[in-house]
Each structure stands twice: as structure tokens, then as C-alpha cells.
Amino acid sequence: MRNKFNLMMLTIVLIWSSLGILRSQGLTLESCLKMADTANLSLRNSRLDVAINKRQISVYNAARLPKVVFTGDYKYNAIIPGQVIPAQMFGGPAGTYTTVQFGVPYNFGNTLQLTQVLYNPQVNYGIQALNLNQRIVEIQQKMTELDVKYQVATTYFNLQAIQRQLSFLNQNIVNLKKIIGNTDLYVKQGLLIETEKDKLTINLLTLENSLQTVISTKTQLESLLKILIGLDESKVIELVQDDLIQKSILVEEGTISRPELELIDAQLALNKEERKGTNMAYLPSLSFYAAYNYTYNMNPEDDFRTGIKSSFLGLRLDWTLFDGFEKYHGQKKNAMNRDRLETQQQLVSQQIKLEADNNKRQIEIQLKSLEISKKQLELSEKVFNQSEAQYNQGTIGANDLINAENALHQSQTNMVSAYVQLRQAELNYLKSIGIIK
Description:
By secondary structure, the chain is an alpha+beta fold. It is built from 8 helices and 6 strands, in the order αααββββαααββαα.
């Protein structure tokens, strides 16, 4: 018993340890995409559309099976209906008529009917159309998945940039507060005037205001990411830090596989099936039916009761010989739609290729821009450190130090901006070839 208890406690410790490791590791882009794949509401709806269309195919197939219908007709004739007939039929004078009532007050009818379609030329068209529509819905699901992945990745990288911007701002604020503290000592010793401290304080307030703006943006992006990946609003998001200079693992060579092109192909196939279906509508359809009927008639006043049975088998042929040129005009419309889809296919292919080529070039441009921004940041940090040392030695004033600090802040902002633009270019390229993963 003690061994079982120890084993149970060890299992609990291991589970909690693994959960702690997961929490400490933070969220990667891959983990965010996996979470969105199972929890994103847009993806759920797109998959429900696929499931609904599959069920519609089952409904259509069920409609092809035999149908058995029961009908009950129970009535009381308060006034028995009559029929006008010539009186001569009953020995009356010619040219005169009389009204005769047929039937009894109570009629109870029961009918059981079987119907089965034997031949309908449009049945196969209906199945093919539903199967093609299923393909279209599945392609639309792929388009939704691509859009959701793009939104998740864009939000993820924007958050990475915001976190780096926050890190820069906090570091700058700490450094500036330290400088202001030293300046205050110099002012008290009469080595500097109060105005020098005020200039630095104004710059500090500007940085703190920028910090609040960035924090607000970070909160908004975190809320958006939680919605996209299905994370509870109360959860704290922690991201694994992305490298600001290395090329993203998202960038990879691949052939263009855009769902938009697949969608047009499916629409062209559906257009072809619609044309076949219209042609098949010129042919007749044939159905078999059978019925059994039992009617019970009753007149309590005469103590009359009798049942009447009937049954029949039949074939029904439906053939539209002339439809007012409806199918003719339908075929003309179908041909126009085909031409429109073929033109759209060519246009979309050209646009996608151009978009992919442009986005691929943008990756190289933005990568160089990020490298330049990194060098600028290194030089700005060097200039600021030198200016800070010179300010402490009293060889330069607050204005020169503020200029160096502003140049450093601008270089940090430029680097973060270049990072976002590089990641955005990579995402745009991957979306243009349809392989975000």
C-alpha cells in the first residue's frame, strides 16, 4: 500500500514538473499555430461547413431510396354529398334531372404507398455536383486555415517587436534616471544649473509616455493572440524570444500552392457538371409506385358497415417536351460562366506569381535593412556611452547628451521596425505560395 502511495505521489510530482517546464518554456510560433488549429473559432466554423456538406450528401443519397408513405383519412359526412343525374335513368321523364346522394356518413380510409425512382438522368449529376461542392468547401477551409495562420504569425511577431521595444525603453529609462540622479548631485554642489536637470527630466517624461503607449499596444496584441489561439483571457502570455537578426525559419523554398487556384479549378469542374446536368434534363424520368387502400364505410342508422379494399401497381413517366427555352438559355449562361472562370484563372495565376516574386525580393531588402539597423544601433549605443561619460566629466552639456539619447532611441525603434517588416515580408511570401506552417 505504501509503495502504491509513493508511486502516486511521484506521478503527481512529475505531472506538475512537466507543467512547470511548459510554462517556463513560453509560447513559440509553432505552439501558437497548433493551439489555433484546435481552438480558433473561425477554423471550427470552416470545419463545420465541411461536415454539414458531407451530411447533405448523405441526405441526397437517402432520397434515392424507396419511400413508403401511410395516409389516414377519417371523416364524418354531416351532409352526404349528392350528384345530379338524368331522371330518365330511373324511369323518369326525359329532359328532367334529379339529385342522388351517394355514400354513408362515416368513412375511414387507410392508404399505404410505395414509390421508387427507377431512372432519373439527373441523379448522377446531383451526386457529382455535391461531391464537387464538398471539394469547394474543403478548399475554402484551407483558405480559412491560411488566413488564420497568417493572423496568428503576424500578431506573434508584432508582440515580439513590442517586447523588444519595451526592453529598450525600460533600459533607457533606468539609464536616464541614473543620469538625472547624478545631475541632481552636481546641481546641489553648484557644479551644474537646475536647467540641465530639467532638460533631462523632460526627456524622461517623454520616454515614460512612450512606455505607456507601448504597454497599451502590447495588451491589445496579447488579447488578440488569445482570441486567435483560443487561450483564456485571464491567462498570461509569455513568448519565447525571437532572434532579431537571423532569417526566420518560416522562409523556405516551395512551389506555389494557393487554394484560390484550386478553388477556380473546382468551380470549372462544377461548371462542366452543370452543363451535363442540363443536357440530361432533356431525357425522361421513370418511377415505380404501388399502393394498398382499405376504406371502411359505416351508417349506424341502418346498422350498415362494410370495408372496401383496393390496390394498384403503376409506372410513371415524366418527360418535359418543351420548357420555353429554359434549358437553352441555361446552357448559354453556363458557357459565359465558364469563360469568366477561365479568364479569372489566368488573371489570378499571373497575380499570384507576381506577388510571390515581389515578396521574395522584399525579404532580401528587409534583411539588409535589418542588418543596417543593427549596425546603426551598435554605433548609437557607442556614441551614447561616450556622451554619458563626457557629460559626467562635464565636457558636454545636457543638450548633447539628450541628442545622443534620442539618436539611440531612434536606432532602437528603427531596428524593431526593420524586424517587423522582415517578418511581415516573410509571412507575405509564404502566404503568396500557400505554405504557412
